[in-house]
Structures are given as structure tokens and as C-alpha cells.
């Protein structure tokens, strides 16, 4: 009888040790970095190819917003720029005429100065020529100021044309990251406004398990550490994957109610994120468990 009792105690002890070793060090759910792509232009959506579940590559054009109004505005600005440039040509021609007259008057002024110096001509004639010379210089300065004004107008038009080009380019919807379309918010031919959400995308090849670790486990983990991650295979068995701790919260928080038992919900824990390479089995929101390997315990 005593031998039987000792045997039963031994079996219970081994069973308890096994259960203890099988207990996860932390629990949580899988999440991915989700990106919501919004419209950078406004107008009718002429083309839009994303569908939920579709794989998209970064840099791929996935939609086009109607740019007719922007193109017409750009053509108007180009025409205004050409008209302003023709003013520059006319102004430069006027300046050349004035410069030619200035040279002629300057020669006459030099000749008259010599005559006045030799007492061969009255000073009044020199004063009249000097007045003509000063008037021409004033006219040249006035015309050049017009030139500067038109040049500033042309520069303003150039910048406006660049803005039109930028708005036209933004009307082409470019996918920002490699990933899978999670949600689609709009259909082709609908009218979009700037900032309107178009679709949500996430890279599911690399997914994160966010778990909550107790203070007792915290000294056993560090960023960059490899851990085992288990997910449900069926009602009885688990699948084991390899993960790497990529982030540990610096502040404690209360355990979310969906994670732990009622007794453990009152305890403070630390949020931890584990990077896991997804072979297609893991979906966003799936539960997962973290196990620290024995050598790190």
C-alpha cells in the first residue's frame, strides 16, 4: 500500500512538472503594420484595381483620378507664360532702341562739351543735350523696371505650372508598400476628395505577436532574443514557429481582459512585440503564445 501511494505521488509530481514546463510565458494576438492609402487628388476615379486579398508591389500604379481640369489649367498657365515672355522680347527691343539713342546723344554731348570749352558754342546747347541724355537714361531705367516686373510674373507662372504638374502626378495613385489588400473603401467612377481613404494594406509576410509579460518574466527577455511562438493547429495540438523580440514597452500596464484570467487581470504587465516570419498560416487577430527557451530561463 505504501509503495502504491509513493508511485501515485511520483506520477502526480511528474505530471505537474510537465504541465509547468508546457505553460506559456506570455499570451497575445498577432497584428500587422497596417497602412491606409488616401487620395492625394480630387475628382472622378477613372481607374482603381485593388481588391481585398490582392498582392500589390510597392511603387505600382493602382489607380488614376481624372486630371482633365488640371491639364486645362496647366495649358492656360503655359499660354500666359508665353504671353509674358513676348512682353520681355518687346521690352528688350525698346531698351535696345533707347541705348542706341543714348549713344548718339552721348556723342553729341561730347562734341558739344569740346565746342563749349573752345568758346565755339553757348553752354545752353550743352545743357539741352545733357537734359536729353538724362531723359534717355531715365526712360531706360523705367523700361528695365517693367522688365523686372514681367520677369517676376514669368517666375510666378513657372511655379504655378510646377504645382499643376505635381497635382497631376498625385492623381496617379501609387501603392506605397509590398503587401496584401485588407480592405477596399471605394469603387471606380466614384468621386474622391483629397485625403479620402481608398484602401488598407499590410505586409503579412512579416507579422508581429503582441504579448503581455509579467514582471517575473521580464528579467528573462531582451530585444533581439529568439523565442518560440505557438499557434493553434487544431483543438488539441499547436504549431511552433520561431520569433524574435523586437520591442519591449518601458512602462507597465494592466493586462487586457481578453488575454488573462480574472485573477491575473489585476496584475500589471509589460507589452512585448515578437517578429515572426509568416508562411501564410497566421492571420491578423489570431491568438499566440510565447515560450522562452530553457537555456534563457
What characteristics describe this protein?
disordered N terminus; elongated; 3 helices; 6-stranded antiparallel β-barrel; alpha+beta; 297 residues
Condensed summary:
Helix 2 runs antiparallel to helix 3 (123-170).
Can you walk through the features of this model?
The protein is an alpha+beta fold and 297 residues long. Helix content is 40%, strand content 29%. The strands form three sheets. It has a six-stranded antiparallel barrel. It has a four-stranded antiparallel sheet with strand order 2-9-7-4, with no helix packed on it. A four-stranded antiparallel sheet has the order 6-5-3-8. A hairpin with a 5-residue loop joins strand 11 and strand 12 (238-248). Helix 2 runs antiparallel to helix 3. The radius of gyration is 40 Å and the shape is elongated. The chain starts with a helix and ends in a 6-residue tail after the last strand.
Layout of strands and helices, then pairs:
Layout: H1 2-22, E1 26-31, E2 34-38, E3 43-48, E4 55-56, E5 61-65, H2 68-117, H3 123-170, E6 172-174, E7 179-184, E8 191-192, E9 197-202, E10 206-214, E11 226-232, E12 238-248, E13 253-254, E14 268-277, E15 287-291
Antiparallel strand pairs: 1-10, 1-15, 2-9, 3-5, 3-8, 4-7, 5-6, 7-9, 10-14, 11-12, 11-15, 12-14, 13-14
Helix pairs in contact: 2-3
Strand content: 25-35%
Q: Strand tally, please?
A: 15
Quaternary state of the chains: single chain
- The run of helices and strands is HEEEEEHHEEEEEEEEEE
- Report the mean per-residue pLDDT as an integer: 85
> Terminal Cα separation, in Å?
39 Å
In the sheet with the most strands, the strands line up as 1-10-14-12-11-15
Structural class of the helices, strands and pairings?
A: alpha+beta
- What's the main sheet like? 6 strands, antiparallel, barrel
Which overall shape is indicated by the principal axes computed on the Cα atoms?
elongated
The percent range for helix content is: 40-55%
Helical segment count: 3
Low-pLDDT stretches:
1-21
- Cα-atom radius of gyration: 40 Å
